[in-house]
Amino acid sequence: MNIAMNRIMKEFKEVVTNESNGIDLKMPEGELTRNVSNLGSQSNKKEIFLTGSIQGPPDTPYAGARFHVDIIVVDTYPFNPPKVRFTTKIWHPNVSSVTGAICLDILKDQWAAAMTIRTVLLSLQALLATPEPDDPQDAVVANQYKKDRKLFEKTARHWANVYANGPNPEPECDAAVASLVEMGFSEEKARSALSTMHWNTSDALESLCKG
């Protein structure tokens, strides 16, 4: 763990002293390390818990919004990649709209020990600018991206406005969500159903009623 901890402290300073690119990294007080017991093992592993954020890239539906991620650094870091997921809900082909799981090659088999947490945050920022719909994490979003780009951008802007303080509201989306909320559905479920059903209120209502 000393190798991982020393490396993370160095990388933390690297990010904090250079915030001009719209990325940020924090160490939650009291939660820097966690003990993780391995099933079937008498040894404990420690993980380093961080939180990061990225500014939405310009000229994208995410522009002006800020998205947060949880970062868990394993004790074999930097030889193995960190575990990263979005905690801010986002409508993007390569991020699960439900869990925040990310499909990004450097978080899997394309990771190299020379890479850093800063590399990860910048790569996520680049992913927001250039989605990869043919290698999706969320098939519904990817399908919308490929079949109706304008509708995808509208939905992504709406989610960015609602969940990530984005500056561009979508009044039609807000009204559609409100109409289903008035029927007794939660705002989050209404928004998810409408987004999945391409903002067709009747189809979204049918989906919600089916449970």
In short:
With 211 residues, the protein is an alpha+beta fold. The protein has helices at residues 2-16, 117-129, 139-147, 149-163, 171-181, 187-196, 201-210, and strands at residues 23-26, 33-37, 44-55, 66-73, 83-86. It folds into two domains: 2-129, Ubiquitin Conjugating Enzyme (Roll); 139-210, no CATH class.
Give the SSE layout.
Elements: H1 2-16, E1 23-26, E2 33-37, E3 44-55, E4 66-73, E5 83-86, H2 117-129, H3 139-147, H4 149-163, H5 171-181, H6 187-196, H7 201-210
Antiparallel strand pairs: 1-3, 2-3, 3-4, 4-5
GO molecular function, one term: transferase activity
Pfam families: UBA (PF00627), UQ_con (PF00179)
Family: Belongs to the ubiquitin-conjugating enzyme family.
Characterization of the model:
This is E2 ubiquitin-conjugating enzyme. One of its GO terms (molecular function) is ATP binding. Keywords: ATP-binding, Nucleotide-binding, Transferase, Ubl conjugation pathway. This protein has 211 residues and is α+β, with helices and mostly antiparallel strands. The protein has two domains: 2-129, Ubiquitin Conjugating Enzyme (Roll); 139-210, no CATH class. It is 39% helix and 16% strand. The protein is built from seven helices and five strands, in the order H-E-E-E-E-E-H-H-H-H-H-H. The chain has helices at residues 2-16, 117-129, 139-147, 149-163, 171-181, 187-196, 201-210, and strands at 23-26, 33-37, 44-55, 66-73, 83-86. Strands 1, 2, 3, 4 and 5 form a five-stranded antiparallel beta sheet that branches. Helix 6 packs across helix 7 (201-210). The N and C termini lie far apart (45 Å). The model is unreliable at 35-43 (pLDDT under 50).
